[in-house]
Amino acid sequence: MKYSLYSLKERAHHYPLKKFFIHFILGIILLVVLGYIYRLKSSMICLLCIEILFLLPWFIRSYDRYLYEKKRFDDVVNYLETMLYSFKKRPKIINALEDSYELSTGIIK
Q: Where are the domains of the chain?
């Protein structure tokens, strides 16, 4: 399954605007402090702050993608563990597949 922006919008967690601005302000403060520690010019610090404004949505989207891929991986792991347990109980592959399908959730099903 290809990961698309449309599927991201369906599965994305709600990221409030207040939280976005808090992270933006914290990023600005960190940049200003590090800029003065490394003695950057104030124009360069402003340029970096503008970059933070444009990169923060990308970080949020990357985090959403990470959560989605983690959920997919967890679903596959649960499916395989269920299949292995069922196969050990009754060594017939069709029974193991049927049991795994009954207990599977999420994207696997």
A: 5-103
